[in-house]
Amino acid sequence: MGAHRMDDAVPAEPGAYVLLIELGAPLALETASLARAVLPAGRYAYCGSAYGPGGLKARIGRHLRQDKAQRWHVDHLTRAGRIVDFRAVPGGRECDLLGRLLKAPGASVPVPGFGSSDCRRCPAHLVALPGDFELGASREEKRREFS
Ligand SMILES: [Zn+2]
Q1: Which residues surround ligand 1, an ion (CB under 5 A)?
Q2: Pairing with 24, which of 2, 128, 131, 145 sits 20 to 30 Å away (CA)?
Q3: pLDDT at position 104, please?
């Protein structure tokens, strides 16, 4: 689980979430569907949704574990990098969260299609951000902002 404060704070409700991930070294994505792209070291935000059993609590808990099987694109990133922050948005939609992150100054899409295989609306569900980007002062504040 690492040093993250979370189990008490993340609801088991369905919804969407944002992971803020710090990648300390370049990461080669060994996935043919991603054209074997290389992510530069830096700060990234990944948007996902959890509408299955256990909701946000189960899904974010899985992301925070290092010892997990490779299942989603983002697993490459969370195993090689470090989740420095996250936001859970009960009832939220990942594509809405992504749209807002893309409007942040300096935001860009590093790998088209990353995490968005099931989405026809977004260029990817991963956004590259400036190194000093923060999700916000408090979880509650951010939850309102994203709602
Ligand atoms: Zn989307």
Answers
A1: 95, 119, 121-122
A2: 145
A3: 93
Q: Measured in angstroms, how far is the CA atom of residue 92 from the centroid of ligand 1? A: 12
Cα(4) to ligand 1 centroid in Å equals 27
Domain ranges of the chain: 15-129
| Residue in this structure with the two tokens 């000093």, named with its chain if needed | 132
The pLDDT, as a whole number, for residue 144 is: 53
Burial class (CB in 10 A: 0-12, 13-18, 19+), 3: exposed
| Distance from Cα 125 to the centre of ligand 1, integer Å | 6
User: Cα(106)–Cα(20) distance, rounded to whole angstroms?
Assistant: 15
- Please state the pTM of the whole predicted model: 0.86
| Per-residue burial over 91-110, b = 16 or more CB atoms within 10 Å of its CB, e = otherwise | ebbbbbbbeebbeeeebebb
CA-to-CA distance for 147 and 137, rounded, in angstroms? Answer: 16
